[in-house]
């Protein structure tokens, strides 16, 4: 794994991180999506599945006894204490699975798509040598509107989701590259293409 270049791509909810990572995939690069791995560890029969039920109750299950991530989100995003508890239960398992994926990938360059990068950075640094970190940012009001449009949330719910996360726009000095996404998707994709070209990846 030490011989592989690792680039973390992160951003707050509705910043455009997923669109950026989709473009990176389209350019032929390997992108490991940590949210996808999170889905896997929530599956029935895993240790985490039972730990989450013990911690948050059977109200987080759907009619097929699967963990309903929307129900779980509605619980934890209204309480920083519960959100922190969820992170404690899940983050190490997720990172260890990422390490395994990195080792199994043949590519010498791997991107990590990760939502809560700064919040997990100490844990990530313990297991993964990240060479660069890129952040996608957008103005707060723009992100609120995107959440309302995309998820059909009301204003207060959208604000609650945003307030549950560390504001990366205030932390841009901690990143190697900053991608600003306040206009159109076409403009965002052009910025990604130019960044990849500039980096000679």
From TrEMBL:
<keyword id="KW-0547">Nucleotide-binding</keyword>
<keyword id="KW-0067">ATP-binding</keyword>
<keyword id="KW-0963">Cytoplasm</keyword>
<protein>
    <recommendedName>
        <fullName>Dephospho-CoA kinase</fullName>
        <ecNumber>2.7.1.24</ecNumber>
    </recommendedName>
</protein>
<dbReference type="GO" id="GO:0015937">
    <property type="term" value="P:coenzyme A biosynthetic process"/>
</dbReference>
<dbReference type="GO" id="GO:0005524">
    <property type="term" value="F:ATP binding"/>
</dbReference>
<dbReference type="GO" id="GO:0005737">
    <property type="term" value="C:cytoplasm"/>
</dbReference>
<dbReference type="InterPro" id="IPR001977">
    <property type="entry name" value="Depp_CoAkinase"/>
</dbReference>
<dbReference type="GO" id="GO:0004140">
    <property type="term" value="F:dephospho-CoA kinase activity"/>
</dbReference>
<dbReference type="InterPro" id="IPR027417">
    <property type="entry name" value="P-loop_NTPase"/>
</dbReference>
<comment type="similarity">
    <text>Belongs to the CoaE family.</text>
</comment>
<feature type="binding site">
    <location>
        <begin position="14"/>
        <end position="19"/>
    </location>
    <ligand>
        <name>ATP</name>
    </ligand>
</feature>
<keyword id="KW-0418">Kinase</keyword>
<keyword id="KW-0173">Coenzyme A biosynthesis</keyword>
<keyword id="KW-0808">Transferase</keyword>
<comment type="pathway">
    <text>Cofactor biosynthesis; coenzyme A biosynthesis; CoA from (R)-pantothenate: step 5/5.</text>
</comment>
<comment type="function">
    <text>Catalyzes the phosphorylation of the 3'-hydroxyl group of dephosphocoenzyme A to form coenzyme A.</text>
</comment>
<dbReference type="Pfam" id="PF01121">
    <property type="entry name" value="CoaE"/>
</dbReference>
